[in-house]
Amino acid sequence: MKFIAIIPARFASTRFPGKPLALLGGKPVIQRVYEQAVSVLGEAYVATDDERIRQCVEQFGGRAVMTRSDHKSGTDRIEEAAEKIGTDADVIINIQGDEPFIQGSQIHTLKELFEDADTQIGTLGKRFESIEAVMNPNSPKIVTDLRGFALYFSRSVIPYVRGQEQQAWLAHYPYLKHLGLYAYRREVLREVTQLPQSPLEKAESLEQLRWLENGYRIRVGLTDVETVGIDTPEDLQRAEHFLNQITT
């Protein structure tokens, strides 16, 4: 199977405008994401609606695709980019443009999920390390079946461990944190971007629930690597510190 990465990147951001172009260790954040993707997959594109980002990508030798500015999600932007590229890839991997430390092992784990013909969409989960982290509504939880297919995603703490104090729940169930990395079979990406918002998606504000609610199967790979996303200028400072740690 052929895999490619498409990296959605917008200049407009409420919490951190222009973050794809912010410098991290002397390189734009989007360049670090692109280089990580290309090192594993060999082929990657940045999908953007901003001329400044396109110019930046092409200046460092990357490939960029201009997309509309009215997309409601990165998934929609990726579908438009895939159409414009005319790719013959079997699977398209969605790597967020603010994840400069995405690891090769995580991408390989995603690829392996598609060895099962039943996998339509792939994503990653990581074991939570504290009950306090589990209780954070900004960290969606995943519940899977015995084959690793997602049953549900929620901002709430699910499942409820009956008969145990909440502080002990982590010892009785392997709570999984959802990491926002996705891969889609080409035809599935085309289909899910045509779906209207679903009731569960609106309730939890989680796009992946639209896919589950419409009967698509999402396979969850396991990783022990934490992502270090950049949402705010403060996150960029922490990322700079993290980069210094791993390169010295």
Explain this structure to me?
α2 (51-59) links the parallel β4 (44-48) and β5. The chain has helices at 29-41, 51-59, 74-85, 104-113, 131-134, 186-192, 199-204, 208-213, 233-247; strands at residues 3-9, 23-24, 27-28, 44-48, 64-66, 91-94, 121-127, 141-144, 150-154, 176-185, 218-222. The strands form 2 sheets. Strands 1, 4, 5, 6, 7, 8, 9, 10 and 11 form a 9-stranded mixed sheet that branches. The protein is of the alpha/beta class. The model has no long low-confidence stretch (mean pLDDT 94). The protein contains 9 helices and 11 strands.
Total strand segments: 11
Summarize the biggest pleated sheet: 9 strands, mixed
The helical percent reads 25-40%
Query: Overall pLDDT, averaged?
Result: 94
Q: How far apart lie the N and C ends?
A: 37 Å
Low-confidence parts, pLDDT < 50 over ≥5 residues? none
Order of helices and strands: EEEHEHEHEHEHEEEHHHEH
Shape: globular
Query: Radius of gyration over alpha carbons?
Result: 18 Å
Number of helices: 9
Oligomeric assembly: single chain
> What fraction strand?
15-25%
| Structural classification | alpha/beta
